[in-house]
Amino acid sequence: EIVLTQSPATLSLSPGERATLSCRASQSVSSYLAWYQQKPGQAPRLLIYDASKRATGIPARFSGSGSGTDFTLTISSLEPEDFAVYYCQQRSNWPRTFGQGTKVEIK
Amino acid sequence: QVQLQESGPGLVKPSETLSLTCTVSGYSISSGYYWGWIRQPPGKGLEWIGSIYPSGSTYYNPSLKSRVTISVDTSKNQFSLKLTSVTAADTAVYYCAGAPNSYYFDYWGQGTLVTVSS
């Protein structure tokens, strides 16, 4: 099973600041990694897939990068609606696995 | 527009079987890549339970494999989850999700809270 480790657990930032979230895989997942955003009481929403492709309707301030075992989600300038929990997920191998999440909170 | 909706009991007794159904609208379940179930215990992260292809092939989380069955009913455009011998540790919000356009879950149900308690 591929373990995904996200860091940091919590990121405290102000609106307008840049957010950089990390996801590290225990073995290579090639580029088969996605990022999801989850707000309280809501289902997760797909943001990025195949490491760097934005899903339909996702603003350009969200970008993903990386391959192999190290991946990054960047939010270039935080909007108030971006404060949420973010999860990475790999689809390289079965079982599918998620990271434990990074909470982006308002500083 | 693709929509998914979970249905099933919100309260299950310990040792009994949890049964949920996901009804898909706006897309034929016979198409697409695969469909799946994900759960989230209160205040915790996401746990993938399993996925099913339109052909009926399934993949399960090894930690749950002995207790999980996912099936598909193409005539009703639904897929279902059964989890046997539940305990309090199975209390969670259960989501059904779809990957019709890729191998990632781009469509999700709203989630349903299932509590295991006597």
List the helices and strands and how they pair.
The complex is a heterodimer of chains A (107) and B (118).
Chain A (H helix, E strand, L loop, with lengths): L3 E4 L2 E4 L5 E7 L7 E6 L6 E5 L3 E2 L7 E6 L2 E6 L9 E6 L6 E2 L3 E5 L1
Parallel strand pairs in A: 2-11
Antiparallel strand pairs in A: 1-3, 3-8, 4-5, 4-9, 5-6, 7-8, 9-10, 9-11
Chain B lengths: L2 E5 L3 E2 L5 E8 L8 E7 L6 E6 L5 E3 L7 E6 L4 E6 L8 E8 L7 E2 L3 E5 L2
Describe the structure.
The complex is a heterodimer of chains A (107) and B (118). Chain A is an all-beta fold and 107 residues long. Chain A contains no helices and eleven strands. In chain A, the strands form two sheets. In chain A, strands 2, 4, 5, 6, 9, 10 and 11 form a seven-stranded mixed sheet that branches. The radius of gyration of chain A is 13 Å and the shape is globular. The termini of chain A are far apart. With 118 residues, chain B is mostly beta strands. Helix content of chain B is 0%, strand content 49%. Chain B is built from no helices and eleven strands. Chains A and B meet through strand 4, strand 5 and strand 10 of A and strand 5 of B.
